[in-house]
Amino acid sequence: MSGGRLSPIAGLVTLAGVLFLWLPLLVVVLFSLHETASLSFPFEGLSLRWYERVYESPEVRAAVQNSLIVATTTALVTLVLATLAAYGMSRARSRWRAPLSLLFFLPITLPGLFIGVALVIAFTRTETSLSLVTVTIAHLVYVFPFFFVLARAALERLDPALEEAAADLGANGATVFRRVTLPQVWPVLVGAACLAFALSFDEFVITFFVVGPDPTLPLFIWSSLRKTIDPSINAISTLLLAFTVLLFVVTFGLASWSERRRRGAVDPLALAGAEAPR
Amino acid sequence: MSATAEPPTTATVVAGARRERGLRAGPLLLTAPAALALLLFLIAPLATFAVYSFLTGSLYEVSGPLTLENYREIAESDLNRTLARNSVVVGVLAAVTSVLFALPIAYWLRYTASRWKTLVLFLMVASFLASYLVRIYAWRTILGTEGVINSGLGALGVIDEPLTFLVFNRFAVTIALVHIYLPYVVLVLYAGLAPLKPTYLEAAQDLGAGRVQRWRRVVLPLVAAPAASALLFVFVLSAADYVTPQFLGGRTGVLLGVQVQVAFSTGDYAAGAAISFALLAGFLLCYGLVALALRVARVDRLRFVS
Question: In a mutagenesis test of the A interface, which of B13, B14, B42, B205 is the best target, namely the one with the most A β-carbons within 10 Å?
Protein backbone atom coordinates (compact mmCIF):
# COMPACT_ATOMS: atom_id res chain seq x y z
CA MET A 1 0.00 0.00 0.00
CA SER A 2 1.29 3.45 -0.75
CA GLY A 3 2.55 5.15 2.39
CA GLY A 4 0.27 8.12 1.96
CA ARG A 5 -2.93 6.11 2.38
CA LEU A 6 -2.13 4.96 5.91
CA SER A 7 -3.85 7.30 8.31
CA PRO A 8 -1.43 9.41 10.37
CA ILE A 9 -3.49 8.49 13.45
CA ALA A 10 -2.18 4.90 13.26
CA GLY A 11 1.39 6.22 13.18
CA LEU A 12 0.79 8.53 16.15
CA VAL A 13 -0.82 5.77 18.21
CA THR A 14 2.14 3.51 17.38
CA LEU A 15 4.55 6.17 18.60
CA ALA A 16 2.47 6.61 21.77
CA GLY A 17 2.51 2.83 22.26
CA VAL A 18 6.28 2.58 21.98
CA LEU A 19 6.73 5.48 24.43
CA PHE A 20 4.15 4.00 26.82
CA LEU A 21 5.99 0.68 26.81
CA TRP A 22 9.55 1.95 27.08
CA LEU A 23 9.49 5.24 29.04
CA PRO A 24 8.64 3.53 32.36
CA LEU A 25 11.48 1.06 31.82
CA LEU A 26 13.87 3.90 30.95
CA VAL A 27 12.86 5.66 34.17
CA VAL A 28 13.93 2.53 36.08
CA VAL A 29 17.26 2.55 34.23
CA LEU A 30 17.75 6.29 34.85
CA PHE A 31 17.30 6.03 38.62
CA SER A 32 19.63 3.03 38.82
CA LEU A 33 22.33 5.61 38.10
CA HIS A 34 21.14 8.05 40.76
CA GLU A 35 23.75 9.30 43.20
CA THR A 36 21.39 9.48 46.18
CA ALA A 37 18.99 6.88 47.55
CA SER A 38 15.97 8.89 46.36
CA LEU A 39 13.75 7.70 43.53
CA SER A 40 12.24 11.09 42.74
CA PHE A 41 13.10 14.34 41.00
CA PRO A 42 15.19 16.48 41.11
CA PHE A 43 17.83 14.15 39.73
CA GLU A 44 21.01 14.74 41.72
CA GLY A 45 23.87 13.33 39.69
CA LEU A 46 25.17 10.09 38.23
CA SER A 47 26.92 7.29 40.08
CA LEU A 48 27.56 3.57 39.76
CA ARG A 49 27.42 2.96 43.52
CA TRP A 50 24.16 0.97 43.37
CA TYR A 51 25.69 -1.39 40.83
CA GLU A 52 28.68 -1.85 43.14
CA ARG A 53 26.36 -2.61 46.03
CA VAL A 54 24.45 -5.19 43.94
CA TYR A 55 27.70 -6.74 42.76
CA GLU A 56 28.95 -7.11 46.31
CA SER A 57 25.71 -8.45 47.77
CA PRO A 58 25.96 -12.17 48.66
CA GLU A 59 22.14 -12.52 48.55
CA VAL A 60 22.00 -11.25 44.98
CA ARG A 61 24.80 -13.59 43.99
CA ALA A 62 23.06 -16.60 45.53
CA ALA A 63 19.76 -15.65 43.86
CA VAL A 64 21.41 -15.17 40.45
CA GLN A 65 23.15 -18.52 40.81
CA ASN A 66 19.87 -20.27 41.68
CA SER A 67 18.14 -18.64 38.71
CA LEU A 68 20.97 -19.66 36.38
CA ILE A 69 20.75 -23.28 37.53
CA VAL A 70 16.98 -23.41 37.10
CA ALA A 71 16.93 -21.57 33.76
CA THR A 72 19.75 -23.67 32.25
CA THR A 73 18.13 -26.96 33.28
CA THR A 74 14.73 -25.77 32.08
CA ALA A 75 16.12 -24.67 28.69
CA LEU A 76 18.04 -27.93 28.11
CA VAL A 77 15.24 -30.30 29.14
CA THR A 78 12.70 -28.26 27.15
CA LEU A 79 15.01 -28.35 24.13
CA VAL A 80 14.94 -32.17 24.14
CA LEU A 81 11.30 -32.77 25.15
CA ALA A 82 9.71 -30.06 23.03
CA THR A 83 11.84 -30.72 19.95
CA LEU A 84 10.87 -34.41 20.01
CA ALA A 85 7.23 -33.50 20.57
CA ALA A 86 7.22 -30.86 17.82
CA TYR A 87 8.92 -33.22 15.36
CA GLY A 88 6.48 -36.01 16.20
CA MET A 89 3.48 -33.72 15.82
CA SER A 90 4.67 -32.21 12.55
CA ARG A 91 5.25 -35.65 10.95
CA ALA A 92 2.35 -37.62 12.44
CA ARG A 93 -1.06 -38.25 10.90
CA SER A 94 -3.27 -39.48 13.71
CA ARG A 95 -6.50 -38.74 15.53
CA TRP A 96 -4.40 -38.14 18.67
CA ARG A 97 -3.04 -34.94 17.18
CA ALA A 98 -5.91 -32.71 18.30
CA PRO A 99 -5.96 -33.76 21.99
CA LEU A 100 -2.16 -33.66 22.11
CA SER A 101 -2.16 -30.14 20.64
CA LEU A 102 -4.58 -29.07 23.32
CA LEU A 103 -2.39 -30.60 26.04
CA PHE A 104 0.75 -28.94 24.67
CA PHE A 105 -0.87 -25.50 24.45
CA LEU A 106 -2.71 -25.69 27.76
CA PRO A 107 -0.02 -24.08 29.95
CA ILE A 108 -0.03 -20.91 27.80
CA THR A 109 -3.77 -20.42 28.27
CA LEU A 110 -3.79 -21.03 32.04
CA PRO A 111 -2.91 -18.11 34.31
CA GLY A 112 0.24 -18.85 36.32
CA LEU A 113 -1.78 -18.67 39.52
CA PHE A 114 -3.57 -21.94 38.66
CA ILE A 115 -0.39 -23.77 37.63
CA GLY A 116 1.32 -22.66 40.84
CA VAL A 117 -1.60 -23.59 43.07
CA ALA A 118 -2.12 -26.98 41.39
CA LEU A 119 1.58 -27.84 41.66
CA VAL A 120 1.96 -26.80 45.29
CA ILE A 121 -1.05 -28.97 46.18
CA ALA A 122 0.42 -31.91 44.25
CA PHE A 123 3.84 -31.47 45.89
CA THR A 124 2.28 -31.28 49.35
CA ARG A 125 0.17 -34.34 48.61
CA THR A 126 3.18 -36.40 47.51
CA GLU A 127 5.31 -34.99 50.38
CA THR A 128 7.83 -33.56 47.90
CA SER A 129 9.79 -30.86 49.72
CA LEU A 130 9.98 -27.57 47.84
CA SER A 131 13.38 -26.80 46.32
CA LEU A 132 14.99 -25.69 43.08
CA VAL A 133 13.85 -29.05 41.65
CA THR A 134 10.17 -28.19 42.16
CA VAL A 135 10.83 -24.73 40.69
CA THR A 136 12.42 -26.35 37.62
CA ILE A 137 9.46 -28.71 37.17
CA ALA A 138 7.07 -25.74 37.31
CA HIS A 139 9.18 -23.84 34.77
CA LEU A 140 9.24 -26.84 32.41
CA VAL A 141 5.44 -26.82 32.34
CA TYR A 142 5.30 -23.04 31.87
CA VAL A 143 7.96 -22.74 29.14
CA PHE A 144 6.98 -25.82 27.10
CA PRO A 145 4.28 -24.30 24.83
CA PHE A 146 6.43 -21.30 23.86
CA PHE A 147 9.22 -23.57 22.63
CA PHE A 148 6.79 -26.03 21.08
CA VAL A 149 5.00 -23.36 18.99
CA LEU A 150 8.27 -22.03 17.54
CA ALA A 151 9.77 -25.48 16.87
CA ARG A 152 6.61 -26.88 15.29
CA ALA A 153 6.18 -23.85 13.03
CA ALA A 154 9.79 -24.17 11.86
CA LEU A 155 9.47 -27.93 11.26
CA GLU A 156 6.21 -27.58 9.34
CA ARG A 157 7.74 -25.02 6.99
CA LEU A 158 10.36 -27.50 5.81
CA ASP A 159 10.12 -29.07 2.39
CA PRO A 160 9.05 -32.71 3.01
CA ALA A 161 10.67 -33.75 -0.28
CA LEU A 162 14.12 -33.44 1.30
CA GLU A 163 13.33 -35.90 4.08
CA GLU A 164 11.55 -38.26 1.69
CA ALA A 165 14.54 -38.21 -0.64
CA ALA A 166 16.89 -39.06 2.22
CA ALA A 167 14.61 -41.89 3.36
CA ASP A 168 14.39 -43.24 -0.21
CA LEU A 169 18.15 -43.23 -0.35
CA GLY A 170 18.14 -45.57 2.66
CA ALA A 171 18.64 -43.25 5.63
CA ASN A 172 16.78 -44.38 8.74
CA GLY A 173 14.57 -42.08 10.83
CA ALA A 174 17.28 -40.91 13.18
CA THR A 175 19.74 -40.28 10.34
CA VAL A 176 17.14 -38.30 8.41
CA PHE A 177 16.51 -36.17 11.47
CA ARG A 178 20.20 -35.65 12.23
CA ARG A 179 21.51 -35.11 8.70
CA VAL A 180 18.55 -33.50 6.93
CA THR A 181 16.07 -31.98 9.41
CA LEU A 182 18.36 -30.73 12.15
CA PRO A 183 20.78 -28.80 9.88
CA GLN A 184 17.78 -26.83 8.56
CA VAL A 185 16.14 -25.94 11.87
CA TRP A 186 18.87 -25.80 14.52
CA PRO A 187 19.07 -21.99 14.63
CA VAL A 188 15.35 -21.80 15.46
CA LEU A 189 15.77 -24.48 18.13
CA VAL A 190 18.73 -22.69 19.72
CA GLY A 191 16.81 -19.41 19.57
CA ALA A 192 13.77 -21.00 21.18
CA ALA A 193 16.00 -22.46 23.90
CA CYS A 194 17.28 -18.92 24.60
CA LEU A 195 13.68 -17.77 24.87
CA ALA A 196 12.92 -20.65 27.25
CA PHE A 197 15.93 -19.62 29.33
CA ALA A 198 14.77 -15.99 29.45
CA LEU A 199 11.21 -16.92 30.39
CA SER A 200 12.41 -19.22 33.16
CA PHE A 201 14.97 -16.72 34.45
CA ASP A 202 12.24 -14.12 34.84
CA GLU A 203 9.32 -16.25 36.08
CA PHE A 204 7.67 -15.11 39.31
CA VAL A 205 3.93 -15.88 39.40
CA ILE A 206 4.26 -19.69 39.50
CA THR A 207 7.63 -19.75 41.24
CA PHE A 208 6.18 -17.94 44.25
CA PHE A 209 4.11 -21.02 45.12
CA VAL A 210 6.68 -23.76 44.52
CA VAL A 211 9.91 -22.13 45.71
CA GLY A 212 11.77 -23.68 48.64
CA PRO A 213 14.41 -22.13 50.91
CA ASP A 214 16.58 -21.00 47.97
CA PRO A 215 15.13 -17.88 46.29
CA THR A 216 15.46 -17.22 42.56
CA LEU A 217 16.27 -13.69 41.36
CA PRO A 218 12.62 -12.60 40.84
CA LEU A 219 11.80 -13.90 44.34
CA PHE A 220 14.67 -11.83 45.71
CA ILE A 221 13.41 -8.73 43.86
CA TRP A 222 9.91 -9.35 45.19
CA SER A 223 11.05 -9.58 48.79
CA SER A 224 13.20 -6.44 48.37
CA LEU A 225 10.19 -4.59 46.97
CA ARG A 226 8.30 -5.37 50.14
CA LYS A 227 11.08 -3.92 52.29
CA THR A 228 12.76 -0.57 51.68
CA ILE A 229 12.93 0.60 48.11
CA ASP A 230 16.23 2.10 46.94
CA PRO A 231 18.06 2.35 43.60
CA SER A 232 19.78 -1.02 44.08
CA ILE A 233 16.48 -2.59 42.95
CA ASN A 234 16.74 -0.36 39.87
CA ALA A 235 20.28 -1.61 39.27
CA ILE A 236 19.18 -5.28 39.48
CA SER A 237 16.18 -4.52 37.26
CA THR A 238 18.39 -2.79 34.68
CA LEU A 239 20.77 -5.73 34.55
CA LEU A 240 17.83 -8.13 34.24
CA LEU A 241 16.34 -6.03 31.41
CA ALA A 242 19.64 -5.88 29.56
CA PHE A 243 20.09 -9.64 29.91
CA THR A 244 16.58 -10.47 28.63
CA VAL A 245 16.87 -8.08 25.70
CA LEU A 246 20.25 -9.61 24.83
CA LEU A 247 18.78 -13.13 24.85
CA PHE A 248 15.95 -11.87 22.68
CA VAL A 249 18.40 -10.34 20.21
CA VAL A 250 20.06 -13.77 19.93
CA THR A 251 16.68 -15.48 19.38
CA PHE A 252 15.53 -12.87 16.86
CA GLY A 253 18.86 -12.91 15.03
CA LEU A 254 19.05 -16.71 14.78
CA ALA A 255 15.44 -16.99 13.59
CA SER A 256 15.81 -14.38 10.85
CA TRP A 257 19.20 -15.77 9.77
CA SER A 258 17.64 -19.23 9.55
CA GLU A 259 14.74 -17.87 7.51
CA ARG A 260 17.09 -16.21 5.03
CA ARG A 261 19.16 -19.37 4.82
CA ARG A 262 16.08 -21.53 4.28
CA ARG A 263 14.84 -19.31 1.48
CA GLY A 264 18.23 -19.61 -0.11
CA ALA A 265 17.99 -23.39 0.17
CA VAL A 266 14.97 -23.49 -2.16
CA ASP A 267 17.41 -22.61 -4.93
CA PRO A 268 18.02 -25.89 -6.85
CA LEU A 269 21.76 -25.25 -6.91
CA ALA A 270 21.81 -25.01 -3.13
CA LEU A 271 19.76 -28.20 -2.98
CA ALA A 272 22.35 -29.98 -5.05
CA GLY A 273 24.99 -28.64 -2.67
CA ALA A 274 23.08 -29.86 0.36
CA GLU A 275 22.93 -33.36 -1.05
CA ALA A 276 26.60 -33.54 -1.89
CA PRO A 277 28.22 -36.63 -0.36
CA ARG A 278 30.24 -36.02 2.79
CA MET B 1 1.57 -48.76 17.83
CA SER B 2 4.05 -51.57 17.90
CA ALA B 3 5.31 -53.77 20.72
CA THR B 4 7.63 -51.00 21.90
CA ALA B 5 4.93 -49.59 24.18
CA GLU B 6 7.05 -49.91 27.30
CA PRO B 7 7.14 -46.78 29.52
CA PRO B 8 8.90 -44.43 27.10
CA THR B 9 11.29 -42.17 28.94
CA THR B 10 13.27 -39.61 27.00
CA ALA B 11 16.19 -42.00 26.89
CA THR B 12 14.24 -44.94 25.50
CA VAL B 13 12.55 -42.85 22.85
CA VAL B 14 15.80 -41.30 21.73
CA ALA B 15 17.43 -44.71 21.79
CA GLY B 16 14.43 -46.14 19.97
CA ALA B 17 14.76 -43.50 17.27
CA ARG B 18 18.45 -44.31 17.00
CA ARG B 19 17.59 -47.95 16.56
CA GLU B 20 15.68 -46.65 13.52
CA ARG B 21 12.47 -47.97 15.01
CA GLY B 22 11.03 -44.83 16.59
CA LEU B 23 9.99 -43.18 13.36
CA ARG B 24 8.55 -46.28 11.80
CA ALA B 25 6.57 -47.04 14.96
CA GLY B 26 4.91 -43.70 14.28
CA PRO B 27 6.35 -40.23 14.76
CA LEU B 28 3.67 -39.63 17.36
CA LEU B 29 5.64 -41.81 19.77
CA LEU B 30 8.17 -38.97 19.95
CA THR B 31 5.56 -36.83 21.68
CA ALA B 32 5.25 -39.39 24.49
CA PRO B 33 7.90 -38.00 26.89
CA ALA B 34 6.48 -34.48 26.71
CA ALA B 35 2.91 -35.72 26.96
CA LEU B 36 3.76 -37.85 30.00
CA ALA B 37 5.57 -34.95 31.66
CA LEU B 38 2.58 -32.65 31.15
CA LEU B 39 0.10 -35.30 32.33
CA LEU B 40 2.18 -35.85 35.45
CA PHE B 41 3.05 -32.22 36.24
CA LEU B 42 0.00 -30.38 34.93
CA ILE B 43 -3.09 -32.52 34.43
CA ALA B 44 -2.69 -34.65 37.58
CA PRO B 45 -2.01 -31.59 39.78
CA LEU B 46 -5.00 -29.77 38.25
CA ALA B 47 -7.20 -32.77 39.03
CA THR B 48 -5.92 -32.93 42.62
CA PHE B 49 -6.51 -29.22 42.94
CA ALA B 50 -10.11 -29.61 41.74
CA VAL B 51 -10.74 -32.37 44.31
CA TYR B 52 -9.21 -30.26 47.11
CA SER B 53 -11.77 -27.54 46.51
CA PHE B 54 -14.49 -29.99 47.59
CA LEU B 55 -12.79 -31.08 50.82
CA THR B 56 -12.74 -29.61 54.30
CA GLY B 57 -9.52 -27.82 55.10
CA SER B 58 -7.53 -27.30 58.24
CA LEU B 59 -3.95 -26.10 58.53
CA TYR B 60 -2.02 -27.56 55.52
CA GLU B 61 -4.33 -30.59 55.67
CA VAL B 62 -7.58 -31.54 54.02
CA SER B 63 -10.10 -34.20 54.88
CA GLY B 64 -13.20 -35.71 53.30
CA PRO B 65 -16.03 -36.24 52.65
CA LEU B 66 -16.70 -34.22 49.49
CA THR B 67 -18.66 -31.08 50.27
CA LEU B 68 -19.77 -27.85 48.64
CA GLU B 69 -19.11 -25.97 51.89
CA ASN B 70 -16.07 -24.04 50.50
CA TYR B 71 -18.09 -22.75 47.57
CA ARG B 72 -20.99 -21.78 49.82
CA GLU B 73 -18.59 -19.77 51.99
CA ILE B 74 -17.16 -17.99 48.94
CA ALA B 75 -20.62 -17.12 47.65
CA GLU B 76 -21.68 -15.77 51.03
CA SER B 77 -18.56 -13.77 51.78
CA ASP B 78 -18.98 -10.04 51.16
CA LEU B 79 -15.22 -9.65 50.83
CA ASN B 80 -14.97 -12.26 48.09
CA ARG B 81 -17.90 -10.74 46.25
CA THR B 82 -16.27 -7.30 46.32
CA LEU B 83 -12.97 -8.77 45.14
CA ALA B 84 -14.72 -10.71 42.36
CA ARG B 85 -16.35 -7.46 41.22
CA ASN B 86 -12.97 -5.69 41.30
CA SER B 87 -11.46 -8.53 39.27
CA VAL B 88 -14.16 -8.27 36.61
CA VAL B 89 -13.92 -4.47 36.40
CA VAL B 90 -10.12 -4.40 36.22
CA GLY B 91 -10.03 -7.39 33.84
CA VAL B 92 -12.53 -5.85 31.43
CA LEU B 93 -10.89 -2.41 31.57
CA ALA B 94 -7.42 -3.84 30.95
CA ALA B 95 -8.63 -6.10 28.13
CA VAL B 96 -10.67 -3.45 26.29
CA THR B 97 -7.99 -0.77 26.68
CA SER B 98 -5.26 -3.11 25.42
CA VAL B 99 -7.22 -4.17 22.34
CA LEU B 100 -8.32 -0.62 21.42
CA PHE B 101 -4.76 0.64 21.91
CA ALA B 102 -3.25 -2.28 19.98
CA LEU B 103 -5.55 -2.17 16.93
CA PRO B 104 -4.08 0.99 15.29
CA ILE B 105 -0.55 -0.18 16.17
CA ALA B 106 -1.08 -3.60 14.55
CA TYR B 107 -2.66 -1.88 11.54
CA TRP B 108 0.30 0.47 11.19
CA LEU B 109 2.78 -2.41 11.53
CA ARG B 110 0.97 -4.40 8.85
CA TYR B 111 0.62 -1.70 6.20
CA THR B 112 3.40 0.78 6.80
CA ALA B 113 6.23 1.23 4.34
CA SER B 114 8.26 2.98 7.01
CA ARG B 115 11.85 1.94 7.64
CA TRP B 116 11.08 2.07 11.37
CA LYS B 117 8.81 -0.96 11.07
CA THR B 118 11.39 -3.60 12.09
CA LEU B 119 12.55 -1.47 15.01
CA VAL B 120 8.99 -0.99 16.28
CA LEU B 121 8.30 -4.71 15.95
CA PHE B 122 11.52 -5.46 17.81
CA LEU B 123 10.68 -2.99 20.60
CA MET B 124 7.23 -4.55 20.96
CA VAL B 125 8.51 -8.10 21.41
CA ALA B 126 11.50 -7.07 23.53
CA SER B 127 9.25 -5.18 25.93
CA PHE B 128 7.00 -8.24 26.18
CA LEU B 129 9.97 -10.15 27.54
CA ALA B 130 10.90 -7.40 29.97
CA SER B 131 10.46 -8.61 33.52
CA TYR B 132 6.95 -8.63 34.93
CA LEU B 133 8.14 -7.50 38.38
CA VAL B 134 10.29 -4.74 36.90
CA ARG B 135 7.26 -3.31 35.09
CA ILE B 136 5.19 -3.29 38.28
CA TYR B 137 8.10 -1.67 40.09
CA ALA B 138 8.43 0.91 37.30
CA TRP B 139 4.80 1.99 37.68
CA ARG B 140 5.19 2.10 41.44
CA THR B 141 8.09 4.53 41.15
CA ILE B 142 6.27 6.57 38.52
CA LEU B 143 2.80 6.84 40.06
CA GLY B 144 3.80 6.82 43.76
CA THR B 145 3.06 9.69 46.13
CA GLU B 146 6.75 10.63 45.97
CA GLY B 147 7.04 9.14 42.50
CA VAL B 148 8.38 10.52 39.26
CA ILE B 149 5.17 12.25 38.18
CA ASN B 150 4.50 13.90 41.53
CA SER B 151 8.10 14.93 42.20
CA GLY B 152 8.51 16.08 38.59
CA LEU B 153 5.37 18.20 38.62
CA GLY B 154 6.33 19.48 42.08
CA ALA B 155 9.81 20.48 40.93
CA LEU B 156 8.26 22.31 37.97
CA GLY B 157 5.95 24.16 40.37
CA VAL B 158 2.79 22.82 38.71
CA ILE B 159 1.46 21.23 41.90
CA ASP B 160 1.99 21.92 45.62
CA GLU B 161 0.48 18.74 47.00
CA PRO B 162 1.17 15.29 45.53
CA LEU B 163 -1.64 13.89 43.37
CA THR B 164 -3.01 10.97 45.40
CA PHE B 165 -5.37 9.55 42.77
CA LEU B 166 -2.47 8.14 40.75
CA VAL B 167 -1.66 5.07 42.79
CA PHE B 168 -3.19 2.46 45.13
CA ASN B 169 -6.42 2.08 43.19
CA ARG B 170 -7.90 0.27 40.21
CA PHE B 171 -6.51 2.84 37.79
CA ALA B 172 -2.92 2.08 38.76
CA VAL B 173 -3.50 -1.68 38.54
CA THR B 174 -5.17 -1.35 35.13
CA ILE B 175 -2.43 0.82 33.65
CA ALA B 176 0.28 -1.63 34.77
CA LEU B 177 -1.67 -4.58 33.34
CA VAL B 178 -2.14 -2.80 30.00
CA HIS B 179 1.60 -2.15 30.01
CA ILE B 180 2.26 -5.85 30.62
CA TYR B 181 -0.12 -7.26 27.96
CA LEU B 182 -0.18 -4.59 25.21
CA PRO B 183 2.76 -6.07 23.25
CA TYR B 184 1.11 -9.50 23.20
CA VAL B 185 -2.16 -8.06 21.88
CA VAL B 186 -0.32 -6.08 19.20
CA LEU B 187 1.43 -9.25 18.00
CA VAL B 188 -1.79 -11.30 17.96
CA LEU B 189 -3.66 -8.64 15.96
CA TYR B 190 -0.67 -8.14 13.64
CA ALA B 191 -0.68 -11.88 12.91
CA GLY B 192 -4.46 -11.70 12.44
CA LEU B 193 -4.03 -9.02 9.75
CA ALA B 194 -1.40 -11.07 7.90
CA PRO B 195 -3.84 -12.67 5.41
CA LEU B 196 -5.31 -9.27 4.53
CA LYS B 197 -3.14 -8.18 1.61
CA PRO B 198 -3.00 -4.45 0.87
CA THR B 199 -4.43 -5.26 -2.58
CA TYR B 200 -7.70 -6.42 -0.96
CA LEU B 201 -8.14 -3.01 0.61
CA GLU B 202 -7.33 -1.38 -2.73
CA ALA B 203 -9.84 -3.65 -4.44
CA ALA B 204 -12.48 -2.71 -1.88
CA GLN B 205 -11.71 0.93 -2.52
CA ASP B 206 -11.88 0.52 -6.29
CA LEU B 207 -15.28 -1.09 -5.84
CA GLY B 208 -16.40 2.08 -4.09
CA ALA B 209 -16.02 1.22 -0.41
CA GLY B 210 -15.23 4.22 1.77
CA ARG B 211 -12.85 4.19 4.72
CA VAL B 212 -15.58 3.19 7.22
CA GLN B 213 -16.96 0.49 4.96
CA ARG B 214 -13.50 -0.96 4.32
CA TRP B 215 -12.96 -1.27 8.07
CA ARG B 216 -16.39 -2.71 8.71
CA ARG B 217 -16.56 -5.18 5.83
CA VAL B 218 -12.90 -6.14 5.31
CA VAL B 219 -10.67 -5.42 8.30
CA LEU B 220 -12.96 -6.10 11.27
CA PRO B 221 -14.27 -9.53 10.18
CA LEU B 222 -10.65 -10.66 9.88
CA VAL B 223 -9.43 -9.32 13.21
CA ALA B 224 -12.60 -10.26 15.13
CA ALA B 225 -11.36 -13.72 16.10
CA PRO B 226 -7.81 -12.70 17.10
CA ALA B 227 -9.20 -9.63 18.89
CA ALA B 228 -11.65 -11.80 20.83
CA SER B 229 -8.93 -14.25 21.83
CA ALA B 230 -6.67 -11.37 22.89
CA LEU B 231 -9.53 -9.83 24.90
CA LEU B 232 -10.06 -13.13 26.70
CA PHE B 233 -6.35 -13.67 27.28
CA VAL B 234 -5.85 -10.24 28.86
CA PHE B 235 -9.08 -10.48 30.85
CA VAL B 236 -8.20 -13.88 32.30
CA LEU B 237 -4.60 -13.02 33.15
CA SER B 238 -5.55 -9.64 34.63
CA ALA B 239 -8.42 -10.93 36.73
CA ALA B 240 -6.22 -13.72 38.10
CA ASP B 241 -3.25 -11.42 38.80
CA TYR B 242 -2.17 -11.41 42.43
CA VAL B 243 1.10 -9.46 42.31
CA THR B 244 0.18 -6.17 40.62
CA PRO B 245 -2.67 -5.41 43.09
CA GLN B 246 -0.32 -5.96 46.04
CA PHE B 247 2.02 -3.23 44.93
CA LEU B 248 -0.33 -0.84 43.13
CA GLY B 249 -3.86 -1.71 44.24
CA GLY B 250 -4.14 -0.14 47.68
CA ARG B 251 -7.54 -0.89 49.20
CA THR B 252 -9.84 -0.44 46.21
CA GLY B 253 -7.73 -2.33 43.69
CA VAL B 254 -7.45 -5.72 45.42
CA LEU B 255 -8.40 -8.64 43.18
CA LEU B 256 -9.60 -12.17 43.84
CA GLY B 257 -6.20 -13.68 43.08
CA VAL B 258 -4.79 -11.98 46.18
CA GLN B 259 -7.25 -14.00 48.30
CA VAL B 260 -5.91 -17.21 46.78
CA GLN B 261 -2.37 -16.22 47.65
CA VAL B 262 -3.40 -15.28 51.20
CA ALA B 263 -5.23 -18.60 51.64
CA PHE B 264 -2.19 -20.55 50.48
CA SER B 265 0.33 -18.64 52.58
CA THR B 266 -1.84 -19.19 55.67
CA GLY B 267 -2.16 -22.91 54.92
CA ASP B 268 -5.87 -22.95 54.07
CA TYR B 269 -5.43 -25.05 50.93
CA ALA B 270 -9.08 -26.10 50.56
CA ALA B 271 -10.41 -22.52 50.61
CA GLY B 272 -7.64 -21.33 48.25
CA ALA B 273 -8.38 -24.18 45.86
CA ALA B 274 -12.10 -23.39 45.92
CA ILE B 275 -11.59 -19.68 45.16
CA SER B 276 -9.19 -20.39 42.31
CA PHE B 277 -11.38 -23.14 40.92
CA ALA B 278 -14.39 -20.83 40.97
CA LEU B 279 -12.27 -18.28 39.10
CA LEU B 280 -11.23 -20.93 36.57
CA ALA B 281 -14.84 -22.00 36.06
CA GLY B 282 -15.75 -18.34 35.44
CA PHE B 283 -13.00 -18.13 32.82
CA LEU B 284 -14.16 -21.30 31.09
CA LEU B 285 -17.65 -19.84 30.96
CA CYS B 286 -16.30 -16.63 29.35
CA TYR B 287 -14.35 -18.72 26.86
CA GLY B 288 -17.48 -20.69 25.93
CA LEU B 289 -19.56 -17.53 25.55
CA VAL B 290 -17.01 -15.82 23.32
CA ALA B 291 -16.57 -18.95 21.19
CA LEU B 292 -20.35 -19.16 20.83
CA ALA B 293 -20.63 -15.48 19.92
CA LEU B 294 -17.97 -15.91 17.25
CA ARG B 295 -19.72 -18.96 15.84
CA VAL B 296 -23.01 -17.07 15.70
CA ALA B 297 -21.25 -14.16 14.00
CA ARG B 298 -19.67 -16.74 11.65
CA VAL B 299 -16.13 -15.57 11.99
CA ASP B 300 -13.06 -17.74 12.10
CA ARG B 301 -12.78 -20.03 15.12
CA LEU B 302 -11.13 -18.88 18.31
CA ARG B 303 -7.41 -19.41 18.44
CA PHE B 304 -5.01 -18.59 21.21
CA VAL B 305 -1.83 -19.16 19.31
CA SER B 306 -1.67 -17.62 15.90
Answer: B42
Using CB atoms, which residue from A27, A111, A114 is nearest to B138? Answer: A27
Give the CATH number of domain B73-296; options: 3.30.1330.90, 2.170.270.10, 3.40.30.10, 1.10.3720.10: 1.10.3720.10
- Sort out which chain A residues have CB atoms less than 8 A from B11's CB and list them: none
Per residue in B263-287, pLDDT tens?
A: 888 888 888 888 888 888 888 888 8
pLDDT number for residue A175: 86
Nearest residue of chain A to residue B177 (CA atoms):
A21
Residue A14 has a pLDDT of 94
The structural domains of chain A, with segments of one domain joined by +, span: 9-47, 57-274
Measured between CA atoms, the residue of chain B closest to residue A170 is B20
Quote the pLDDT of residue A201: 93
Selected from 1.10.3720.10, 2.60.40.10, 1.10.1240.10, 1.10.10.10, the CATH number assigned to the domain covering A57-274 reads: 1.10.3720.10
The parts of chain A modelled with pLDDT lower than 70 are 1-5, 262-278
Domain parsing of chain B, residue ranges:
10-52, 73-296
Using CB atoms, which residue from A103, A144, A204 is nearest to B243?
A204
Residue A39: its chain B contacts at CB < 8 A?
141, 144, 146-148
One-character DSSP codes across chain B: --S--S---HHHHHHHHHTT-TTTT-GGGGGHHHHHHHIIIIIHHHHHHHHHTTSEEETTEEE-S--SHHHHHHHH-HHHHHHHHHHHHHHHHHHHHHHHHHHHHHHHHHH---TTHHHHHHHHHHHHHS-HHHHHHHHHHHHSTTSHHHHHHHHTTS-SSPPSTTSSSHHHHHHHHHHHHHHHHHHHHHHHHTTS-HHHHHHHHHTT--HHHHIIIIIHHHHHHHHHHHHHHHHHHHHT--SHHHHH-TTTT--HHHHHHHHHHTT-HHHHHHHHHHHHHHHHHHHHHHHHHHHHTTPPPP-S--
Tell me the chain A residues in contact with residue B280 when contact means C-beta distances shorter than 8 Å: 114
Q: Name the band, by pLDDT with cuts 50, 70 and 90, for residue B14.
A: low
Interface confidence, given as ipTM, is 0.84
